[in-house]
Amino acid sequence: MSDQETKACQNCKQNFTVESDDFAFYEKMGVPAPTWCSNCQFVRRMAFRNERTLYKRKESKGGKDIISMYSPDKQLTVYAHDDWWSDNWDPLTYGKDFDFSKPFFTQFGHLMKGIPWSNLLNFNNVDSDYCNITTGNKNCYLVFGGDFNEDCAYSTFCFYSKNVFDTYWTDKSELSYENIDTEKNHKVSYAQYTRDSADSMFIYDGVNLNNCLGCVSLRNKSYCIFNEQYAKEEYFKKLEELDLGSHSKLQEFKNKFDEFKLKFPHKYAYIIKSPGSTGNNIENCKNAVNCFDAHGEAEDLKNAFIVGWGLRDARNVDHAGHKSELVYDSLATFSNCSRVKLSFMTSSSHDITYCYNCHSSNNLFGCVNLRNKSYCILNKQYTKEKYEELVPKIIEHMTSTKEYGEYFPIALSLFAYNETIAQEYFPLTKEQAIEKGYKWKDSEEKVYKVDIKSEDLPDNIKDVTDDIVGKVIECAHKGACNEQCATAFKIILEELQFYRKMNLPLPRFCPSCRHYQRFRQRSPIKLWHRKCMKPGCQNEFETSYAPERPEIIYCESCYQQEIY
């Protein structure tokens, strides 16, 4: 076994290194070493995941109107969620014999295009029809990738939360607004990297704060404004004077807070109780190398994104975990899975290879949309003996066609590049995407009869009347942005009630533009080698803060000395 090998990525042509422990993992998984670098593999997987782009279309089965992640122009059979999960159709009827005269991906593509698809990927949701890739939500609206929430809206990756609006990665919180990477908060708004706090606004890197405003890197404090201590009565008097229910005054305060944040050192990465780990936003993990958003007693991971919760022994994966293990180059693997490789959307399954949206199954190869099945190839049922005889021959065939070990080619994605989250993390222009071989979907012309322009909205929430509900409000961007702008939006009743309770002004941008503005506040999924910026310190580290960024970046020890 080689100790190390330098390879040239077949996609970006840049060199990447395969380490000895990588070779050991690939041997255990029964796959060859990759021909694409981990970053290009990541982009390729992301181009298969449409989280947020929703459409109205007709259901193929009954013709009723449904909300779907598949646009009406896509020539696919699309069922409503309940119909797709019912026993009224059998995915095995779409099964095909494997043809050794044709490439595997050609045959797999025909299977994908012919079989019915669920309009959305939701599990056990109640009154949450406008959510996607979620589970266990109740009364939620436009929540994506977030689970076990109630009365939440316009949020991505929110978990176990209630009455949360416009957040990105929020956990176990209530009455939260415009928060990013926060957990266990109550009535907290405009916060980032903040936990165990209450009744606070504009907080960065705060822990156990109560009634604080515009504070950075504080711990266990109350009644502070811009890190200055106030008496309780004085604090509330100042808060009333600021009148942050006014949109113009809130924006003025936000600008001051953004300048204030830059005066403080930032830790090179948010890595907590995670020995042997590199990346960012890692907590309670072990040996998580080049990982981002990894949480919850995960171990032996590499090149992973949004993973954890018991995930072990996995490489080049994202959106994976919940006590799964032995996963390679796969997307959306959860609920006690094992030995999953080169697949998308797998739960409660084991020994799955080249499968798409298969659940509660085992020993599948090249299958689509199966549930509770075993020993199937291209959705055709085999005996255990015949399956085990055929699979090695198929792998040999795929090796001869240079397919085996590669993820699904981008031509098999059911979505255009700019419909997927690849566009969020690795944005391209239409021309760039087409040049790289991706599909592109031009924005459909949106013709709305605007009832009110964003600049004409009441400045203060106290002046907003009930008749704003349902009005068509023009987005302040008016489509002149690269944020999938909807050009207009509405305020729902629950949202208005939330703003009043929180004393927050109405938004001026559509939900998509608001999402992108939050997204850009997070660090990229990339590392740079840098030195600590504290004078005299020579420590070096890998950080997601690019060298040209304005933040002051400290190593772990210098940061701890400065903050605590």
Question: What does this molecule look like?
Answer:
With 564 residues, the chain is an alpha/beta fold. Helix content is 20%, strand content 33%.
Keyphrases for this structure?
eleven-stranded mixed β-sheet; alpha/beta; 33% strand
What is the residue-averaged pLDDT? 96
Strand content: 25-35%
Overall shape: it is globular
Rg of Cα set: 25 Å
* Discrete helix count: 12
Structural class: alpha/beta
Question: Could you give a short description of this structure?
Answer:
The chain is 20% helix and 33% strand. The protein has 564 residues and is of the alpha/beta class.
Give the arrangement of secondary structure elements:
Blueprint: E1 4-8, E2 15-19, H1 20-29, H2 38-46, E3 55-58, E4 65-68, E5 78-79, H3 81-84, H4 104-114, E6 117-118, E7 122-123, E8 134-135, E9 141-144, E10 153-159, E11 162-165, E12 168-171, E13 174-177, E14 180-183, E15 186-195, E16 198-207, E17 210-216, E18 222-225, E19 228-229, H5 232-242, H6 247-261, E20 265-267, E21 271-272, E22 279-308, E23 312-321, E24 325-334, E25 338-341, E26 344-347, E27 350-353, E28 356-359, E29 362-365, E30 374-377, E31 380-381, H7 384-400, H8 422-425, H9 430-435, E32 452-453, E33 473-474, E34 488-489, H10 493-502, H11 511-519, E35 528-531, E36 540-543, E37 552-554, H12 556-563
Parallel strand pairs: 5-6, 7-8, 9-10, 10-12, 11-13, 12-14, 13-15, 14-15, 15-16, 16-17, 17-18, 20-37, 21-22, 22-23, 23-24, 24-25, 24-26, 25-27, 26-28, 27-29, 29-30, 32-33
Antiparallel strand pairs: 1-2, 3-4, 18-19, 30-31, 33-34, 35-36
